[in-house]
TrEMBL record:
<dbReference type="InterPro" id="IPR035666">
    <property type="entry name" value="MCO_CuRO_3"/>
</dbReference>
<dbReference type="InterPro" id="IPR017762">
    <property type="entry name" value="Multicopper_oxidase_fun"/>
</dbReference>
<keyword id="KW-0186">Copper</keyword>
<dbReference type="InterPro" id="IPR011707">
    <property type="entry name" value="Cu-oxidase-like_N"/>
</dbReference>
<dbReference type="Pfam" id="PF00394">
    <property type="entry name" value="Cu-oxidase"/>
</dbReference>
<dbReference type="InterPro" id="IPR045087">
    <property type="entry name" value="Cu-oxidase_fam"/>
</dbReference>
<feature type="domain" description="Plastocyanin-like">
    <location>
        <begin position="157"/>
        <end position="277"/>
    </location>
</feature>
<dbReference type="InterPro" id="IPR011706">
    <property type="entry name" value="Cu-oxidase_C"/>
</dbReference>
<dbReference type="Pfam" id="PF07731">
    <property type="entry name" value="Cu-oxidase_2"/>
</dbReference>
<comment type="similarity">
    <text>Belongs to the multicopper oxidase family.</text>
</comment>
<protein>
    <recommendedName>
        <fullName>L-ascorbate oxidase</fullName>
    </recommendedName>
</protein>
<feature type="domain" description="Plastocyanin-like">
    <location>
        <begin position="32"/>
        <end position="148"/>
    </location>
</feature>
<dbReference type="InterPro" id="IPR001117">
    <property type="entry name" value="Cu-oxidase_2nd"/>
</dbReference>
<dbReference type="InterPro" id="IPR002355">
    <property type="entry name" value="Cu_oxidase_Cu_BS"/>
</dbReference>
<dbReference type="InterPro" id="IPR008972">
    <property type="entry name" value="Cupredoxin"/>
</dbReference>
<dbReference type="Pfam" id="PF07732">
    <property type="entry name" value="Cu-oxidase_3"/>
</dbReference>
<dbReference type="InterPro" id="IPR033138">
    <property type="entry name" value="Cu_oxidase_CS"/>
</dbReference>
């Protein structure tokens, strides 16, 4: 099995021919501007996609190539676009990570991204900028459509897209987070659903809540996408239970639940059976609040949107004076070891197959600057001088030398390149170990998101990871593939460096490339909570990527189009 996957990795190598995009029509076009934009009835200078927050919904086919042209119409800021959850299925420079896999798109330039989601990855995703704090507003839904018959039947689908509103600008927030003294962004001012929401101070309301319209008796697939900057939310729909059928782009066995708990970066599809006309008459209601509360923050923000049936007369500007549902608390380990893949995964790596365990200690370091460390180092997009993938192409970075250093270092981290290198064929167990801050003991909750192929989530717990104990729990579990799972904190404070929760993953190293793994809280990213992994040696990365012309290797090179020049683009998949 290992050998087979190994070969598959190489079978992905492509001709990679250079094409002039002079008369090329990409399937989708996105235009990104920075402008004053009104959210929650507040004007804020924001980076927006096609003039809206969220950006337009993109639907792309599973198993086929899609080209997406992204224009940076800003005059003073770089941009990238990341296809959250689809990394391993993008062409080599198409993952949209500025210091890892590509030079950012300079002001007034555009870039053609090439994506081909593999069969088995149909589901709910989103796209967002990976530069600074831009993704607070520069993001939008990305749906990978099934090429196979749907495993579940439903009448229609609805989107529930969550994002945060902060009244400070991106620049103020970014500057504050790296300043001495450190200045926090402040808490989210509003959690938005499909771009709609309001401040808690907006009462009586001037700003309408989001409305999800349903018809009696029908079955809906609700796609919940958490594109929040910070907020970890608990959500429930008054009088409606749902069944989870998809997590992060993979169908699951149905799991009934009365609430969802979602961190930044996660997606779930659920089936919702709408009330029948007679049930509505019995309940004497034609609208139901969708209630959400933020978790693990110093203050709880509770917000609403509406599930509306035809002929509802309640004004969407009115919020209930008292929350109709109990205000939720965190469920540590929510649905861990419970949610199962719809079709069993034959290739789940057993403990015996694991060739290396990498434990990453994560804690906050409070000194002049407040930063997040992974094995004593922070990483931000400003760490490398040039993107790692470019350096590998140019022969300036040798992943094999980094690998030797990382192994010699004992913890899997190469302090010179600030990367976690791995070899093709390794079976990794990655353990994220939460610890109390230096020097105040504070602990936080982190949604950990991996680029690259989705990993098997093998659970989480309090204290320190114990493989023997977890193996017992896995005996009755059926681990699922995910790209974002939560490292819980279990408590607000402990002693500095004391373990306070872990999350563990298993993955086979098959796809050569440069992949990021990071906390998806945008503030934490800016404070250093990111890691970069190189998979494979230089030959393997170049073989998988194919021959590349110089067009990608310089900032603003000819792979980047502008008003006078069409880009020269490598066609990787076709
Ligand atoms: C975004 O806007 C551009 C130009 O305004 C338009 O051509 C394109 O179709 C829009 N994209 C989507 C996905 O709606
Ligand atoms: C945005 O609004 C602010 C405050 O109202 C104003 O000072 C600024 O000029 C506006 N910027 C743009 C680009 O319209
Ligand atoms: C854009 O990225 C380039 C290359 O990393 C960098 O030199 C430049 O300072 C960036 N520009 C801005 C406005 O951040
Ligand atoms: C931003 O929100 C904070 C509450 O988080 C409030 O104190 C402040 O006045 C707001 N600022 C503006 C300009 O609205
Ligand atoms: C899930 O909910 C559905 C609809 O209410 C019900 O028919 C089914 O029995 C439930 N499944 C489980 C395992 O509880
Ligand atoms: C909604 O109201 C319209 C007009 O009053 C009426 O014709 C229709 O039957 C109502 N629909 C339902 C589902 O009650
Ligand atoms: C959440 O915790 C608080 C404080 O412990 C408690 O009062 C409240 O009832 C809890 N809420 C729920 C829904 O369990
Ligand atoms: C962590 O904080 C301590 C002081 O609390 C400081 O001496 C040390 O340099 C900091 N470490 C890093 C990597 O910033
Ligand atoms: C791990 O758990 C097993 C079984 O409970 C126990 O025997 C062992 O001592 C634990 N290992 C560590 C390092 O705590
Ligand atoms: C447009 O792109 C071409 C080719 O990469 C480059 O020579 C030219 O300087 C660019 N123009 C601007 C205004 O950046
Ligand atoms: Cu975090």
């Amino acid at each position: 099995m290992l050998g087979l996957l190994f070969l598959l990795g190489f079978a992905a190598a492509r001709q990679n021919t250079a094409v002039s995009h002079e008369s090329f029509y990409p399937e989708h076009v996105l235009r990104v501007t920075a402008q004053n934009y009104s959210l929650a009835c507040q004007d804020r200078y924001s980076v927006v996609i096609n003039g809206s927050v969220p950006g337009p919904e993109l639907r792309i086919p599973e198993g086929k190539v899609t080209w997406i042209r992204v224009y940076n119409d800003m005059s003073d800021a770089n941009l990238t676009m990341h296809w959250h959850g689809l990394t391993a299925f993008t062409a080599p420079f198409s993952d949209g990570t500025p210091a890892a896999s590509q030079w950012p798109i300079p002001p007034n330039h555009f870039f053609d991204y090439e994506i081909r989601p593999e069969i088995g990855y149909a589901g709910s995703y989103f796209y967002h900028s990976h530069v600074g704090f831009q993704a607070v507003s520069a993001s939008g839904p990305l749906i990978v459509e099934d090429s196979q018959p749907l495993p579940y039947t439903y009448d229609e689908e609805r989107l529930v897209y969550l994002s945060d509103f902060f009244n400070k600008t991106d620049k103020t927030i970014e500057d504050g987070l790296v300043a001495d003294p450190f200045t926090w962004s402040g808490e989210t001012n509003a959690v938005l659903v499909n771009g709609n929401g309001r401040l808690t101070t907006d009462d009586p309301g001037t700003c309408a809540l989001a409305s999800i319209n349903v018809e009696p008796g029908k079955t809906y697939r609700l796609r919940f996408i958490a594109s929040t900057a910070l907020s970890f939310v608990s959500l429930a729909i008054d009088s409606h239970d749902v069944a989870i059928i998809e997590a992060d782009g993979h169908y699951t066995k149905p799991l009934n639940t009365s609430y969802l708990q979602m961190s930044s970066g996660q997606r779930y599809s659920v089936l919702l059976k709408a009330k029948t006309e007679s049930e509505l008459e019995q309940l004497n209601k034609r609208h139901f609040y969708i209630q959400f509360s933020t978790l693990e923050r110093p203050s709880v923000l509770t917000g609403f949107s509406l599930l509306e049936y035809p002929n509802n007369t309640v004004d969407a500007r009115v919020v209930p004076s008292e929350p109709p549902l109990p205000v939720a608390n965190t469920t540590n380990g929510w649905i861990d070891y419970q949610l199962q893949p719809l079709v069993p995964h034959e290739d789940f790596p057993t403990l015996e197959e694991v060739t290396r365990r990498v434990t990453i200690q994560m804690y906050q370091n409070v000194s002049q600057h407040t930063i997040w460390l992974q094995n004593e180092y922070p990483w931000t997009e400003h760490v490398p001088q040039s993107p790692y993938l470019i350096d590998i192409y140019e022969g300036k970075l040798d992943p094999d030398t980094s690998y030797q250093r990382a192994i010699a270092n004992g913890d899997g981290f190469d302090k010179i390149t600030k990367t976690f290198p791995a070899k093709i064929g390794e079976v990794l167990e990655i353990v994220w170990q939460n610890e109390g801050a230096v020097s105040n003991g504070g602990v936080d909750t982190h949604p950990l998101h991996a680029h690259g192929r989705h990993y098997f989530d093998i659970g989480g717990g309090d204290g320190v990871y114990n493989a023997t104990e977890n193996e017992e729990r896995l005996k009755t579990a059926h681990p699922i593939l995910r790209d974002t799972t939560v490292l819980y904190r279990y408590r607000e404070k402990t002693t500095p460096r004391a373990p306070s929760g872990w999350r563990a993953w298993r993955l086979r190293v098959t796809d050569a490339g440069v992949w990021m793994i990071h906390c998806h809280v945008l503030q934490h990213m800016i404070m250093g909570m990111q890691t970069v992994w190189t998979f494979g040696d230089r030959d393997e990365i170049l073989t998988q990527g194919g021959p590349v012309t110089g067009s990608y290797l310089t900032y603003g090179g000819s792979a980047y189009g502008n008003s006078t020049h069409s880009p020269i683009v490598q066609h990787y998949f076709d």
